């Protein structure tokens, strides 16, 4: 009985082997019966990945579309950011910071200029009638067309007025270097009894040729000091040779091309700081400015 069972196994072995051998062929024939389902890209990718694994190469280079393995490794180490993107980010941030700071300063200057104009009657400035150091009449209308820098003083001042006029000369040069001839510097005397047009002309020639001196009667000087809110202590009836004191406010009054007050510049400003204030306001001006 055992011999008959062994004989049956030997007879069945060729049949089993032939059946296993024909199985791939049958699968191939089965897949050919419906070729549309086998047209896929995935078997190709799987085959390339298998080949790479057999060759000892990483599979991510092909799956992500890199040309070389070195390119894939470099991309993997650097991550999604590069030094170019970082530099661009820093430059954009710096540019936005500078822009917002400039806009903030410009809006602050605009608020100052608008607030100083006041409502109705101007806070500083107004109609006046004087005589310049060339003997010609000069009114508030002659200030229009340019930015003007108005300073009140007197020629017999021992120290403060010379220092401030030296500072004024520095402002004139710095503004002219940046914007051209757009600033009219005006010196108004608070001592009409001694400061005649000729005296003022010789006095201002020692500081800057662009300065224009003004004087007038005691009442005319008082009126212009009142319009500019300047303290005025000169006595009205001064006799020749009489000694007296002259006191006045120490400010530079910046006026825009329309004759409106913009900002007061005090003694605490250096030449560079004062010139920057003037240049910034000139740069913000959107209207026409005479340069002649």
From TrEMBL:
Keywords: Copper, Disulfide bond, Membrane, Metal-binding, Mitochondrion, Mitochondrion inner membrane, Transmembrane, Transmembrane helix. The keyword Transmembrane applies. The chain crosses the membrane at residues 81-102. Gene3D superfamilies: Glutaredoxin. GO terms for biological process: cell redox homeostasis; intracellular copper ion homeostasis; mitochondrial respiratory chain complex IV assembly. Disulfide bonds join 157-161. InterPro entries: SCO1/SenC, Synth_of_cyt-c-oxidase_Sco1/2, Thioredoxin-like_sf, Thioredoxin_domain. Cu cation binds at residues 157, 161, 248. Belongs to the SCO1/2 family. This is Thioredoxin domain-containing protein.
């Amino acid at each position: 009985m055992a011999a008959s069972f062994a004989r049956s196994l030997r007879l069945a072995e060729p049949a089993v082997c032939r059946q296993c051998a024909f199985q791939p062929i049958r699968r191939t024939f089965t897949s050919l019966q419906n070729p549309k389902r086998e047209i896929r890209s995935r078997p190709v990718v799987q085959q390339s990945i298998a080949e790479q694994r057999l060759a000892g190469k990483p599979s991510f280079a092909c799956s992500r579309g890199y040309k070389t393995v070195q390119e894939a490794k470099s991309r993997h180490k650097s991550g999604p950011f590069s030094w170019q993107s970082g530099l661009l980010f820093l430059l954009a941030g710096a540019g936005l910071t500078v822009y917002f700071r400039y806009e903030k300063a410009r809006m602050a200057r605009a608020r100052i200029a608008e607030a100083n104009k006041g409502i109705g009657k101007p806070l500083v400035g107004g109609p006046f009638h004087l005589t310049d150091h060339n003997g010609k009449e000069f009114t508030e209308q002659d200030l229009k067309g340019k930015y003007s820098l108005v300073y009140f003083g007197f020629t017999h001042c021992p120290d403060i007025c010379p220092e401030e006029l030296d500072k004024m000369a520095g402002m004139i040069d710095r503004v002219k270097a940046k914007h051209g001839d757009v600033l009219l510097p005006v010196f108004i005397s608070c001592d009409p009894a001694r400061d005649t047009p000729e005296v003022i002309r010789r006095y201002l020639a020692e500081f800057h040729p662009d300065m224009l001196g003004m004087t007038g009667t005691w009442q005319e000087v008082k009126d212009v000091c009142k319009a500019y809110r300047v303290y005025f202590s000169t006595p009205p009836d001064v006799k020749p040779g009489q000694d007296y004191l002259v006191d006045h406010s120490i400010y530079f009054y910046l006026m825009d091309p329309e004759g409106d007050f913009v900002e007061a510049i005090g003694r605490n400003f250096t030449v560079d700081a004062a010139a920057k204030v003037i240049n910034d306001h000139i740069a913000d001006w959107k209207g026409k400015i005479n340069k002649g």
